[in-house]
Amino acid sequence: MVPEALRHPPGGKPWLLYLVLAGSVAFNIGVLSRYGASTPEVPGVAAPAPVQAIGEATEVSNAPVPPELLAPLPTAQGSVSAPGSLHFSGAITRSLSDTFVAAPTSSPAALSAVFTRLFAWDVDMRRDLHKGDVVEVLFEQPASGEPVVLAAKLHLQPGSSAERVFTAYRYQAPGDAYPSYWSAEGQEVPRRLIDGPMENYEQITSLLKDRPTHEGMDFKTNMGTPVVAPRAGSVTRTNWNHAANGNCVEIQYQDGTLAKFLHLNENMVQAGQRVTAGTVVGKSGNTGHSTGPHLHYQLEQGGRVVDPIKYHGTLRRQLQPTAMPGFTERVTQLDRQLGEQVAVNP
Ligand SMILES: [Zn+2]
Question: 187 CA distance to ligand 1 centroid (A)?
Fold first, then answer.
């Protein structure tokens, strides 16, 4: 939504940046407010993310899908596409997770969770799915760990006037540390926090709205990735409740908001220290109750948890024009693989 060029306007026109950012924030607040309200569970429709009992004191939040979801299941039908890649498509009858049970993978629940994570930015999986909606996914299944989605489509209410199609193609943009997911038009599918605590991460794997018991946002990333203070403030404490939180840092922003950075490999600041926006406060890690390298970022105001998405606002990146030819070629390739499989398995 905010082109990269406008975020760092050449020639110094900060008013333009502020105008665009203000518009973006206003838009996001509008878009996201619908996610903010608690939504009732729709019977038969799966919760979008694996549920674990998680609180500050019992943080076991992870980046990857929990091991119990990776346990082999007997059902496996579908087809092998290009070497190493697998294809699945199916219509939703009862729930998303039920639909994925027929997928050719030993861990349908993990595939369902990964698929959900991709489109959760646009679709409320508890509320927006209907019987007859179609899912399609091209993926790889590593010997261990969660499935890697290469391309995914979610077709809502096909054939009706309310029809909507969401697509996501895996692609590593030039200069990015990790592959991400992009629409065919080159717009990034997952949103990013505006001035968040981390630039280089693989994926945001847990949103506040996913799990009521989980109080932060999780950024899956390699060990040692720099974590920065998004706002100026002062360090209020470090390494409290170390068994659960691991190495951790708490910062009070100048507006009074408390920010917690958990599971760090290394703290780079000490209690009492003042920080400016962009100060490196630690390196990401896997300490405390954590099942994979990630950063847990949590905000509180007056003792209440605040959604980082609302506090920061979000944006979507657009691929640079110079990246588009290579990306479009990749999209054509992936579409061909999806299309062949649809033809083989109508
Ligand atoms: Zn977490």
Answer: 27
pLDDT in tens, 244-302: 999 999 999 999 999 999 999 999 999 999 999 999 999 999 999 998 999 999 999 99
CA of 298 to the centre of ligand 1 (A): 8
The CA 214 to ligand 1 mean position distance, Å, reads 6
Q: Ligand 1 centre from 99 Cα, in Å?
A: 28
* Residue 106, domain member (yes or no): yes
Domain that residue 22 falls in:
1-37
Which CATH number is 281's domain given?
A: 2.70.70.10
Identity of the residue numbered 36 = G
pLDDT, one tens digit per residue, over 171-211 is 999 999 999 999 999 999 999 999 999 999 999 988 877 77
- pLDDT band for position 118 (cuts 50, 70, 90): very high
Task: Kindly compute the dihedral angle of the four CA atoms of residues 253, 257, 262, 268, in this order, to the nearest 10 degrees.
Answer: 10
Q: Which residues surround ligand 1, an ion (CB under 5 A)?
A: 61, 216, 218, 296
Indicate whether 158 and 202 sit together in one domain: no
Which residues are within 8 A (CB) of 334 and not within 5 positions of it... i.e. 6 or more apart?
Answer: 138, 150, 151, 169
